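PT: before anyone asks, these are the final sequences, not the draft ones from last week. 890 residues across everything. Please model them as a single complex and drop the result in this thread when it's through.
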Amino acid sequence: MFKRPGVLPGFWPAYSYSVLYLSLIVLIPLSAVFLKAATAGWPKIWQTISSPRVVAAYEVSFGASLAAAIASVVIGFVIAWALERYEFPGKSFVDALVDIPFALPTAVAGISLTSLYAPNGWLGRYLTPLGIKVAFTPLGITIALIFIGLPFVVRSVQPVMEDADHEVEEAASSLGASRWQVFRRVLFPAFRPALLTGFALAFARGLGEYGSVVFISGNLPMKTEIAPLLIIAKLEQYDYAGAAAIAVAMLVASFFLLFLINFIQGRSRRFMETKLS
Amino acid sequence: MSATSRRRILRTEPTWLRRGLIGLALLLTFLFIVLPLAAVFIQAFDKGWAVWQAAVTEENARSAILLSLLVTGITVPLNVVFGLAAAWTIARFQFKGRNVLLTLIDIPFGVSPVVSGLIFVLVFGAQGWLGPWLGDHDIQIIFAVPGIVLATVFVTFPFVARELIPLMQSQGSDEEEAAIVLGATAWQMFRRVTLPNIKWGLLYGVVLCTARSLGEFGAVSVVSGHIRGLTNTIPLHVEILYNEYNYTAAFAVASLLSVVAVVTLLLKKVLEWKTREARV
Amino acid sequence: MEDAGGQSVSIEVRNIRKHFGSFEVLRDVSLRVEDGELFALLGPSGSGKTSLLRIIAGLDYPDSGTIHFNEEDATKAAARERQVGFVFQHYALFRHMTVFENIAFGLRVRPRVTRPNEYTIREKVNELLKLIQLTPLADRYPSQLSGGQRQRVALARALAVEPKVLLLDEPFGALDARVRKELRRWLRNLHDELHVASVFVTHDQEEALEVADRVAIMRLGRIEQTGAPAEVYDSPANAFVYGFLGDMTLFNGTFVRPHDIEISRNAVHGPGAVYATVRFIGDAGGLVRVELRREDTNEEIKAEISRERYRELAIRVGDYVNVEARHSRVFSE
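LR: through. Structure below.
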């Protein structure tokens, strides 16, 4: 079973403990959702996840996550580019700030963003006269998800930018490429897998996000209700099977995304390796 | 260092573009990241120090803080032990199912917090698998502290392991083998060689795990039942205050969590620097 | 230091087999290292030499076969019970401990009953520091040392526990050429002083032949030949050993060392002599390398001649010369 059992002690205790812990905390509870959904039977599952309110919630979650992930990629790329390629005062401070959305509890982010973008809020009061409503609209959900998704993109792209081979860039310049051509043909293709990874991470996180969204979304059924909120609504009506059915649909979507991320990372790693050899 | 700075000069864009991009990056960082954080503190102290103090020392706030500390106090040690065991297994041995183990550790990152809470309701809730049995024996897990702990453990267990695995892999097992050949017992090896080598990474994992335990909202929200004074953690208390339009109090309590977040980031910078030192 | 490794032992490896997955690393390996001998395991990478060393140390376990220290079966003994000193290829110094504490480690982790007191530990470590000539650097950390210094600390750390046998994995592999030669001689002298059975792994034939009392040449998990340096060099068992221990060239269907190729301007006389043209002359270094092409078969021949002989012959590229071999060997594979 083992390639190199070697001399180091403690494999069996550590292995058994890890497997036991993961089984109790992850595997058994997770399988409960699938079983619960299954006990309700396919017709019931289908009925639940295809009801207009649930479909509307999926659309809101999916649309806002997609828009936010795209915006995060653009904004995150600019921030990562400035941090990795230029020197400016306070750079390492700004670099540390990028992690705030990771560290700030989602509920805190949620009430703060709502207060900023509410019609009488600091930003909302300037946007409302322009006819832009943010809080309690899908746009508000998107802004909350940009906040959540941004660090994923920056942190995915940064290491790749750092490792980028400067000589390739210089070689392209010396071959007569303009700066824009160097960017378009040499740099951007190298960053693309990392951007894609950041995009997928931000998107996956957005689909499931709850705390930062519930306050700013206003939770209007059919308009600004997100999928995780519906699970809570089902639970409050003691419709456990219904909650499980929605959860299963979400789990399948996010596992598919995780799989996709691994696939992209695996491919880009191979790409990097061939580049080295 | 000199080589990199020389390279930087060679590949620099025109000044106007460089300045423009730096300015844009700063503006975006301010707008999307700094402003939401600053808004918490400004609104927390909107009505003065006394109001802030009253909000965070009030009865329900105090019990929420105590509950959050209790949950964190149970969760973090559990996840430290798991993190060490999992990292030791994965970073030091080759075995079948190693990738499965790695994937399982990543699961909480891909699961919505609400679903993370739901799974425990489905196991331990009144209508759950173990619900009837637990009811007969008068054991309450959901809408009680054990449920909150379980949900928090689920959401936070990857942090320590994820921090330790790459660190231990990069360090390799030579030093531990050397200790064993020199006659050290398993415990002596762990205490004198493994632990000193990973201590900064471990500490960083603990910091992340602590911060997340204190701030977890979605998963805890599902299993807690929002019973004031009993099953309300700090973030849940913030939610209740906010929904009651008690904004200043909500931001006052939220400012506590924001301080934790800022301290986490500071420690991250320090510990990153320390681990980089340890990796050399 | 006469007490270090006081009761040295012989090592015997009997019919060791080992595979990782489907790859056979060691295929029925047996050898014996006598008490007090300095023994080299020589082979290209992938020959299984490091695996064999790790099995002797107890850092890995064989699939079958046995390890004996002084005729006593130690196959099942845990690494920490074997009392071997092991020097890792990349030294494996404890990065968070000073040089002093690194060397003291093996003494400090002993069970309370056999653990020396603090004074004895200090004495012992200071003695070892003197031996490796690093007394002034006792309080430095490994990251503050040069490669050669780290190597010596690793050796002192292994010697502190008074090992019965000393095992070294590519001891000079990570050092630059000059330090390498110095340390090589130093290790030989140290071994003569300690006289503990020592095995070192290397891929550098010059190193093995210069330092070791005896050498085992390994290939693909098998031992091809064992013997004293002069023995294996002068009477290699097969073409692999011959080629691995020195340069060789093919001449008239036999193997010849380039320095055994004789070049002359005379007409062909001997039975094996042929005509060839000079294709290349490399005249930097103690010997002059000459590459030739046979007129009849177009085969390439490599030769090495002394500078004197080169001047005497005054050959140039394109010259037409007479070539013959002084010694040659035929191997049946």
